C-alpha cells in the first residue's frame, strides 16, 4: 500500500476542474464532470460497471431490474457504461436496457476486446456492437492486456477511420503495472482502466502520476473492491466528518476518496440496485476531500 | 496467465447466486412436464438395475447426459457462463462413453449391489431436489435428476458404483463435474457447496478401493448376482 504525494493544490485544481462542467441532470444536485485529457470532452465523475450485476441471462425479472438501474443512472446524469465480452450476457442486457430506458441519448459506450489473437478482434468487436445496438463505441479497451500488441493497431485504425472515439487498455487488482506502464509510455492510448480504492492503492505510486503526465484518462474499476469494502464497513458507524463532504454513506465516502485524486476520470461502481446507483451518482457532487481529509477517510475505513 | 497467484476463484465467478438459482427456476418452468419423463426414466433405471440390464441403464443415462448438454448447458447456462459450451461438450462426451461402454460393448455389469452406490443414487433422486427448500429457497428452484447436472452426475456415479469392475473412463467426467459445481457453489458461498464434492470423494474412494483390491469383497457389498 502506498500514499500518493498529492498536494493540497493538486486537490483544489482537481475539484475546480471538476466543478466547472456540470452535466445535464434531473437530480437535485448537478453531477460534476471531468475532462478526458486528450480531447477535453467532459465525462460525469461516476460511471457504471456491469460485471456480474448485469449478467442475468434471459431472466425477464433480472433484465427489468437492470433496465431500471440504467434508467436511474441516465436520469441522474450518468453517461459511461463499461462492459466486456467476458461478462456473459451483460452486453445484451445493456443493449436491451438502453433501448428500453428511453433516456440514454448521452450514453458513453465503453466495452472491451477480450480474445486471444489480433485477427479475432474485429469479429468480436462487431458482435459486441450488435449486442449494445450502438452505431459505434465511444471507447474500446483491451481487456486485461490480452494480446494487446495485436489488438491496439486494430483499435487505432478504427479510431483513425472514425468508427471509434477512444482507445484504452485495462487491468485490475493491481496486476501487471510494469507492463501497463510500458504501454502508457509507448502507445498513444486515450484511457487506462485500473483498480483503485481505499484498500488497493498500488496505482498511486507510478500509474496515476504517469497518467497525468501522459494525458491519459483513468477509469477506476472495483471502487468497492467488488463489494468487500461495503461488507467490511457495514457495521461501522459513519464518521462525523462525512457530513462535511455531503456523504450519507460509506459508499459515497469511498467514491469521493477516489474521485478526489486528480488523475482519476471516473470510477465505475456496479450495482443491481436503483437506490445504490442514485447514491453513487450523488457522490459526484458537492465538495471533494483534500489530502488531510483523504487520510482521515483511510483511517476511518481502517486501511490507512 | 501471469501473476496467477493473485487470482482467486471469485475472479472467475460471472454471475450472482440469485441469477444462478433463478436459472433453475426458469428452466424448470420452461421444460415442465419433462419432470414426469425424468421420473419415469429414474424408475426404468431402477427396474433395469434389478434385472441387471446394464444396456438399458447406460442408454437411459446417455439420454439424460445429452439432454443436460443441450437443454441445460447450451440453452440455459451458456446465457450467463461462456464456459458452459465446454461443459456441454464434456456432457456429450460422457453420453458417448456411456453408450460405448454399456450399449456397444455391453460391459456394464451392475450386479454388485454396492450400498454406497445405491445410497448415492437415492440421494440424487430424493435429497438433492429438496436441497433448495432445505436451505430456504423456493421449491421451484429444485434440481431434478435427469434435468439438472448435479443430481444427474451423482446418480450416474452411484449407478456406476454398482458395476463389478469400476469403469474409470465413465466415472471421470461425473467426478470432474462434481468438483466444478462444488467450486462454483463454494465461490457463491452456497450452503450446499460441499455435497457434490463429498459424493465424488466417496465414489472415487470406493472405485479406487475396488480397483486396487479386486479380489477382496468391499465391506459394503453383498454379492447376490
Ligand atoms: N479487468 C477489468 O477490466 C475489470 C476488472 C474488474 C472490474 N471491472 C469493471 O469495473 C466494474 C466495477 O467493479 P466490480 O463490479 O468488480 O466491483 P465494485 O463496483 O467495487 O463492487 C460492486 C458491488 O458493490 C455493491 N454496491 C455498489 N454500489 C453500492 C452502494 N451504493 N451501497 C452498497 N453497495 C453497493 C454492489 O452490490 P448491489 O448490487 O447490492 O448494489 C456490487 O455487489 C465492473 O462491474 C466492471 O465493469 C473491470
**Overall tally of domains of chain B:** 1
Indicate the proportion of strand residues of chain B: under 5%
Overall number of strands of chain A: 9
Question: Which CATH class of chain A applies here?
Answer: Alpha Beta
The run of helices and strands of chain B is HHHHHHHH
Q: Can you give me a brief rundown of this structure?
A:
The complex is a heterodimer of chains A (304) and B (225). Chain A is of the alpha/beta class. Chain A is built from eleven helices and nine strands.
Structure characterization notes:
The complex is a heterodimer of chains A (304) and B (225). Helices cover 39% and strands 13% of the residues of chain A. Chain A has 304 residues and is an alpha/beta fold. Chain A has one domain (18-301): NADP-dependent oxidoreductase domain (TIM Barrel), CATH 3.20.20.100. In chain A, the strands form 2 sheets. Chain A has a 7-stranded parallel β-sheet with strand order 3-4-5-6-7-8-9. A two-stranded antiparallel sheet of chain A has the order 1-2. In chain A, strand 1 and strand 2 form a beta hairpin. Mean pLDDT of chain A is 92; it is low at 1-28. Chain B is mostly helical and 225 residues long. Chain B has one domain (16-210). Helix content of chain B is 64%, strand content 0%. Chain B has 8 helices and no strands. Chain B is globular and about 45 Å long. The N and C termini of chain B lie far apart (52 Å). The mean pLDDT of chain B is 93. The A-B interface holds A 51-53, 55-59, 61-62, 86-89, 173-176, 226, 272 and B 2-3, 6, 10-11, 13-16, 18-19, 22-23, 26, 76, 79-82. Bound molecules: NADP nicotinamide-adenine-dinucleotide phosphate. Residues 49-51, 53, 82, 143-144, 170-172, 193, 221-227, 230, 251, 268-273, 276, 279-280 of chain A line the site of NADP nicotinamide-adenine-dinucleotide phosphate.
